[in-house]
Amino acid sequence: MPKFQFDGLADFFAMGGYAFYVWLAYAFFFVVMGWNLIQPRLERRRILKLLQARQAREERNATVPTQEEREHA
Amino acid sequence: MWQWLYKLGSPRHFYEMTTSFLPWLKGVTYFLLIVGLVWGLGFAPPDYQMGDNYRIIYIHVPTALGAMWIYVMMAVMAAMHMIWNIKVADMVAKSSALVGAGFCAVALFTGAVWGRPTWGVYWIWDAKLTSFLILFFVYIGVIALRSAFDSETSGSKAASVLTLVGVVNLPIIYYAAVWWNTLHQPPSELSLSSQGANPPEIWIPAFFTGFGLIGLVFVFVIMRTRNEILWRERRAQWVQDLVKQEAGRA
Question: Residue A18 domain-assigned?
């Protein structure tokens, strides 16, 4: 079993003096991956909303009588 | 097998198959990534020359290799789209371009941040670095070219051609450090014993993040492709039904 290489959390965050470089690299990694995970979700929500609105509009239009029907009424 | 592949070519089947497949893929992917990152950051022994700074390797190497094979996948999809006119292939190619550009950016950024304390510079016009930067620009070019067309078919045709031309760059990147011995080191050999320069204690966690990131690529590409399918097939009855169903749930 591999053992923890640092003496406590403070030592872990210090990364043997390379904290700035290591954590900057990992921060950028997480930002890009997080964006890739969130952006398609927002996009999906946007598409569904748009298509729902379109569907509702079409259903409304279907119940409105046409010019011809109104003249015959 | 062929039937299964054939079905994946239909947007509707692709969408339905990935609906049940995606949660499993996400589970396995997150598990691999968490194990790999925790192990790599906290439990792998420090490098005898670079100390703890080398821990950037666990994201740098997999994203760099990932950026290259995403390109291969994109090129295969572009070829399939051009030869057999498979719509899903084009949608996967479009999704891959964005994901690939992201991986490229991470590989370049982590490389720069790693280069500063090890080489003394963030950037240098080394063969490997330069050819990799070109890969990033090719990705950006493919994305920009596609969006420059109003017509979807012309856009995807142009993007496919550029994608296939850009394949030339891949072997250059891969062998750059071997052909021109400038600064970036060639890929390290893995040693099987703990006494070697690259012992299993160091490379095993890299395999976890590596396979985790492969999984993540599929998660990202599938999510984007599903959106693309919903949009392009928006007039199909099955999408209309799905939209109605989702509206009832919200």
Answer: no
Asked if B230 lies within 8 A of A44 by C-beta distance, the reply is: yes
- pLDDT string in tens for chain A (73-residue length): 677 877 778 887 777 778 888 889 889 999 999 999 999 999 999 999 999 998 888 888 877 777 777 777 6
Distance between CA atoms of residues B40 and B42, nearest Å: 6
Domain total for chain A?
Answer: 1
Candidates B148, B132, B123; CA nearest to B100 is B132
Side-chain half-sphere exposure of B212, counting CA atoms within 13 A: 20
Contacts of B147 (CB under 8 A, 6+ apart): B155
Distance in Å, alpha carbon of A11 to nearest chain B alpha carbon:
10
- Per-state percent for chain B, helix, strand, coil, to nearest 5: 80, 0, 20
Residues B132 and B108: beta-carbon distance below 8 Å: yes
Q: Which residues span the domain enclosing A64?
A: 25-72
Q: Residue A32 and residue B105: Cβ atoms within 8 Å?
A: yes
Chain A residues whose CB is inside 8 A of the B44 CB are 2, 5
Q: Give the model's pLDDT for residue B93.
A: 94
* Residue of A4, A9, A15, A18 to mutate, interface with B, max B Cβ within 10 Å: A18
> Which of the residues B113, B214, B221 would you substitute to probe the A interface, choosing the one with the greatest number of A C-beta atoms within 10 Å?
B113
Indicate yes or no: CB of A28 within 8 angstroms of CB of B43: no
Distance from CA of A63 to the nearest CA of B (A): 18
Determine, yes or no, domain membership for A7.
Answer: no
A interface test, pick of B103, B202, B227, B241 with most A CB neighbours within 10 Å: B227
Give me the mean pLDDT over the B78-90 stretch: 92
**Model confidence over B108-139: pLDDT tens digits?**
999 888 888 878 778 888 878 888 899 999 99
Residue boundaries of the structural domains of chain B: 22-185+212-240
Residue A64 belongs to a domain? yes
pLDDT over 90 (residue B168) = no
